[in-house]
Design goal:
Layout lengths: L2 H18 L3 H12 L4 H7 L8 H38 L18 H15 L3 E2 L5 E3 H4 L19 E3 L2 E3 L5 H7 L9 E10 L11 E11 L4 H16 L5 E8 L2 E10 L16 E10 L1 H6 L8 E7 L1 H9 L12 H4 L7
Parallel strand pairs: 1-5
Antiparallel strand pairs: 2-4, 3-4, 5-6, 6-10, 7-8, 8-9, 9-10
Helix pairs in contact: 1-3, 1-4, 2-4, 5-8, 5-10
Bound molecules: 3,4-dihydroxyphenylalanine.
Length: 348
Amino acid sequence: MSLKETLEQLKTDALSKIEATQTLDSLNEIRVQVLGKKGSITEVLRGMKDLSPEMRPVIGGFANEVRDTLTTELETKKEVLEEAALNAALEKETIDVSLPGQELNIGTSHILTQVMEEIEDVFLGLGYEIIEGYEIEQDHYNFERMNIPKDHPARDMQDSFYINDEILLRTHTSPIQARTMEKHDFSKGSLRMISPGKVFRRDSDDATHSHQFHQIEGLVVAEGITMGDLKGTLEVLLKKLFGEDREIRLRPSYFPFTEPSVEVDISCFKCGGKGCNVCKQTGWIEILGAGIIHPRVLEMSGIDSTKYSGFAFGLGPDRVAMLKYGVNDIRYFYQNDLRFLEQFRVKG
Ligand code: DAH
């Protein structure tokens, strides 16, 4: 047989083997046998050295043609077999719709957010507006307009982080009182709002103090507001938060922006008033500061204090959350430790 005939033969054999094969493995074997380094085409080409110089390129060219044809055929068959394998696998695969889905680890809102939203809901139900103040505040609103002038000793308790002499991180949410009052149009009705948010103080951090914490400011201004309105409102709130059989008690206190000022206590929700570790054996738990708005604070905001009066209060949601959930260190709220936070996952 001439070399050309051998190549012809080799091509015919290989093509029929490729045609007949049904697996990727055997197809690969054919490829190695025919086209591999030690394969049959290489072997045939070794015989080229015995050819005349005129015949060499002819046979060489033909050998390349055979190699190209076979390479293409192998590739095409490979694609066919791969597709068949995929289809077979897909056919075997059935979807069990009763299998439980993969649970996605979605987060939960922070416990302080939950407590603040609970409080907001109570006030929304009472027809209050929720207003946001500024965390970076002017000395003017944070202190002056709250009746705390530059040399007032009440400033000592509320040192803050100053950006310059006039701008600071607010030490309480009370400045929003002045900002809201000066804008309010009483021809459109009374003013009822709460304002939740972060406040900042130069405090050394310990179990009950943090340089950053939260407050919810409350403010009502209308004609004829009295201490009775304040007490009734806070009673609704505190019963919702701590249980319907809670009682509340007002004790005289002092804040520069209210007159009179009170400290509000609730009867202990743990012992009901008998005395325990939560209420430090007193039967009462101090929960917030409040009072009747000082006439000067109303006047500084352009409100006629002979016509209008109001009450205000400042509540600490951190403290509410600590009491409600038995958290004994305020710093847990700010450390972002998932072991702590996940205990308060919202169910649903
Ligand atoms: N701003 C006060 C504080 O941070 C809390 C407070 C007390 C707010 C009495 C009030 C209030 O509105 O009436 O210590």
